[in-house]
């Protein structure tokens, strides 16, 4: 049977037997992969530490009948330790890899791989607030999957202007005529922050108030979970921006 190589981000692992693991990965060229890493739970394993969640590796795989087998793994990005040492980074990283794991096979593109690698690298380096990195990742991941939220003109009717209502089910910011009764109203600062998170304008993101950051985080979480059609369980453990300032 043929072998192949690819760059991967480890999303999660499961124990298999006494010494093996099933590793779920997002790869650069082959979409999502599930493969067996034999013997990696033994202390003598040569590459077990390279196949932990949040790690980026160059792997060689052998095509099996049901599950492929990981033959080699070389580290490309050792982000796990720096992420695990900080609770806010750790919980945000879990939410990111859980989101990546929810992607359909058709959505698991090279762009999704590169986005996740960049997000994990930013978390490991502590370049920005962990929740902001997560929020930016969620918005961009949704956009790459074809679900970019409307943050300017009305997401439903296309009406131009400044609108102040966000409805996840209708695709983002909507005008007063399209907004259902009781929909969440959003101030201009929060709309601007959503736009900056989408565009990667980190100076504006880092300067945002805790109130705007918390409001944006809530809207982004609702939007992502609506389109994924299931809750992102890890989000319940992620501290809000206001909690992070205490």
Automatic annotation (TrEMBL):
Residues 1-79 form the DNA replication/recombination mediator RecO N-terminal domain. InterPro entries: ARFGAP/RecO, DNA_rep/recomb_RecO_N, NA-bd_OB-fold, RecO, RecO_C. Gene3D superfamilies: Nucleic acid-binding proteins, Recombination protein O, C-terminal domain. Signal peptide: none annotated. The keyword Iron-sulfur does not apply. It comes from the Bacteria. Belongs to the RecO family. This is DNA repair protein RecO. It comes from Microbacterium salsuginis. The gene is recO.
């Amino acid at each position: 049977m043929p072998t192949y190589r690819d760059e991967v981000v480890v999303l999660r692992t499961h124990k298999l037997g006494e010494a093996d693991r099933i590793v779920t990965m997002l790869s650069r060229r082959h979409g999502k992969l599930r493969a067996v890493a034999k013997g990696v739970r033994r202390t003598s394993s040569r590459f077990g530490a390279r196949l932990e969640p949040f790690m980026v590796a160059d792997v060689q795989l052998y095509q099996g009948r049901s599950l492929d087998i990981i033959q080699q793994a070389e580290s490309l990005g050792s982000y796990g330790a720096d992420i695990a040492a900080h609770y806010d980074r750790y919980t945000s990283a879990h939410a990111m890899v859980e989101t990546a794991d929810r992607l359909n096979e058709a959505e698991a593109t090279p762009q999704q791989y590169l986005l996740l690698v960049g997000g994990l690298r930013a978390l490991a380096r502590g370049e920005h607030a962990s929740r902001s990195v997560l929020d930016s990742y969620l918005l961009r991941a949704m956009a790459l999957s074809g679900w970019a939220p409307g943050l300017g003109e009305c997401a439903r009717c296309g009406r131009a202007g400044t609108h102040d209502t966000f409805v996840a089910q209708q695709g983002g910011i909507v005008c007063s005529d399209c907004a259902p009764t009781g929909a969440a109203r959003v101030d201009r600062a929060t709309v601007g922050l959503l736009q900056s998170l989408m565009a990667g304008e980190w100076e504006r993101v880092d300067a945002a108030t805790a109130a705007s950051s918390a409001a944006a985080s809530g809207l982004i979480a609702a939007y992502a979970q609506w389109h994924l059609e299931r809750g992102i369980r890890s989000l319940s453990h992620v501290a809000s921006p206001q909690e992070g300032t205490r």
